[in-house]
Design a protein that fits this description.
Blueprint lengths: L4 E2 L4 E2 L2 H14 L9 E8 L21 E2 L50 E21 L11 E7 L7 E2 L3 E3 L5 E3 L4 E3 L20 E8 L6 E11 L35 E10 L15 H10 L22 H10 L4 H4 L8 H13 L3 E2 L3
Antiparallel strand pairs: 1-2, 2-14, 3-11, 4-5, 5-11, 5-12, 5-13, 6-7, 6-10, 6-12, 8-9
Length: 371
């Protein structure tokens, strides 16, 4: 017998199907997937406050203070936050909704090791969140120079920080070629672009730079997110020329910009994350107020869906638009509960424990009777 066998008196598990579930869980990585069609758009402002209208004071990160991660290089010696990261020019500046309120706001440390980030931070969200867009505003209210650029990596977790995945990636080179899905790596501008106050035609003289990251299909860029990590890199060579932080081949993009590594760092004025609370996990697919064998059969009938079009009735328990092993895990966790319990967020067990439980049930000839 291959697959699940429908019975009048119950539900029969088969070893063949459980093995397929194990393979599915491994392929799915047992987590929520980010969308694959991410785009990053950069907008420049000649005045330092020209882009302030894009700043939000009600986004997901508003008022949250990040944790500095191991390897963080602190702050520029001129930044008052060097002595205390909780100074208004330090970590609070990233999420205060104020932009570049001072000349040293968000000024990161220069001269990190080649290829290493200068600022590594993590935000722990208050609840699982479906993220629609991320904006990062950098600039320099004192000079039009290379510190307005930004180069960063974004990672996200859907399991409260146990594991992290890269969030897309987008880079445009000097010839206009676009590189996507670059392991979470973004550059606001192509390497070789120059921004300084020379008055030379073709050389920009801007004081602010906004990067907006979103999905072309207007879908969430990641679902069920519990934590976000940002690594910020140096961006400039003191002459206003944007460079990547690597000598030789950039491991994220696979190409060499032909320039020595950047060592001058940006002023990060604002990190805004837009989204909404993720729906609570719910495996009552048929809506009868119970999580039982009937819900399993509903999941089975629609498995798999991977294009983010599924709804609860299809077997999508976690609201990510897919019907996959994650939803089966939620069904297994919530099995036997009533409507009052399924509104709570279930905590999926590790895939290995789920498979052990299901295989043991199969070997014992378990029959789960349909209610």
């Amino acid at each position: 017998m291959n697959g699940i066998e429908r019975r009048v008196d119950g539900l029969g598990w088969s070893i063949g199907y459980l093995a397929a579930c194990a393979a599915s869980m491994a392929l799915a990585g047992f987590g929520h997937e980010a969308s694959a069609a991410l785009t990053a758009v950069s907008t420049r402002g000649q005045a330092f406050n020209e882009l302030d209208g894009a700043i939000s004071s009600t986004d997901v990160l508003q008022g949250l203070i990040a944790t500095e991660l191991p390897g963080d290089q602190g702050w520029h010696p001129a930044n008052p936050a060097e002595a205390d990261s909780l100074n208004a020019n330090g970590l609070p500046a990233f999420t205060d909704g104020l932009g570049g309120f001072g000349g040293l706001t968000g000024l990161l440390n220069d001269f990190p090791d080649v290829g290493s980030p200068t600022k590594l931070i993590q935000y722990d969200l208050s609840a699982p969140t479906n993220i629609d867009q991320i904006n990062i505003l950098t600039g320099n209210r004192n000079n039009a120079d290379g510190r307005i650029y930004s180069t960063f990596v974004i990672r996200y977790s859907t399991n409260n920080g146990s594991t992290f995945e890269p969030l897309g990636g987008f880079v445009r080179d000097f010839e206009g070629n676009i590189y996507t899905d670059t392991m979470g790596y973004y550059q606001s501008d192509p390497s070789g672009v120059i921004n300084n106050e020379t008055g030379i035609p073709g050389v920009t003289e801007d004081m602010a730079n906004l990067v907006e990251i979103f999905d072309d299909a207007s879908t969430p860029i990641a679902t069920g997110v519990t934590n976000l990590q940002f690594d910020f890199y140096s961006v400039d060579n003191t002459l206003g020329e944007n460079r990547d932080p690597f000598d030789g081949t950039n491991p994220f993009t696979g190409f060499d910009d032909g320039l020595s590594a950047a060592f001058v760092s940006p002023l990060v004025w604002e990190i805004d994350v837009f989204g909404s609370a993720a729906a609570a996990d719910n495996a009552d697919f048929d809506g009868n107020g119970r999580v039982d064998g009937g819900d399993f059969l509903q999941w089975q009938d629609n498995f798999p869906v991977t294009d983010m079009t599924a709804v609860l009735a299809d077997g999508d328990a976690n609201g990510d638009g897919n019907v996959d092993a994650d939803d089966l895990a939620i069904w297994q966790t919530q099995y036997g509960s009533t409507a009052s319990l399924t509104t709570a967020v279930g905590v999926p067990e590790p895939a290995s424990l789920i498979m052990s439980s299901l295989l043991a049930s199969a070997l014992l000839g378990l029959r789960v009777r349909l209610s």
